[in-house]
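Per reviewer request, we include the raw input and output of the structure prediction for the construct analysed in the revised manuscript.
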Amino acid sequence: MSNIPLARPAKNAQPNGSTADCTGLRWSDGRLRAARERIVVEEPLCVEVAYERAGQEVTRVLSVTMRTPGSDEELALGFLYCEAIVDNARDVIGGVLLDVNSRGQKIPTWRARLRRPPSSQEVERVSRGIITSAACGVCGRTSLEGLRAARTHGSASQASIACEAVDALPERLESLQVLYPGTGGCHGAGLFNEDGVAVFVREDVGRHNAVDKVIGAALAAEIPASGMTLVLSGRAGFELVQKAAAAGIGLVVAVGAPSSLAVALASKSAITLIGFARDRRFNVYTQAGRPVSG
């Protein structure tokens, strides 16, 4: 079988760049056949900021993440917010997608122009790691200091949510995903209101990117995420719960498992954290935010 070529992405990606054809082989029913598949595109995005300090133009690279192209402005805005570089969408007065970053590296780059210059300490803290993987938004950090603290979201006044309503959310999210059905290779994140209606749904090869996108979408639309439910197509790691806490979200529902650090942060941040929400069952790990009722 050594003469069988490896599968490779074809050049004819869709116009939006989010999926591509892949020619390769498929083994089924005991036979190996040529096959064509749709795969989700994973490409780097550099996030950098531009601002004026002491009458001089300053541009700084903050992060390089592997993401699925699309909603780059929302991704950058959500990232900047969760990293406490900006407090709202009005702190960003424009942005542009470039082919080259400020270091001269040829890489897709979203440059956000800030209304006010961040402190040197803030920029140094965020840019310390530079490379962010698609799997984890905080992997490789030397410290967790500086991540945006949980906002007060008034979870005590939130109406309880019925178990049947929780059970319906993951399937509702999946039904609104457009990349996953054809590729099976990307994560989904959705913000749902108290009535279970989807307000924003975004997809990305990186689970933390998908969350940044929905939070960025809410910020750009000036729609408070507090009081909403964040639904995740995969597991609930620390970095995703941290982003939910930063946005003031009181309920996180994940199809997969939470981590111990995610549970601890959810409890500390007054978030109700639900995992393994699939196949007509789920586990409630913390009940500090929006309560679940039978």
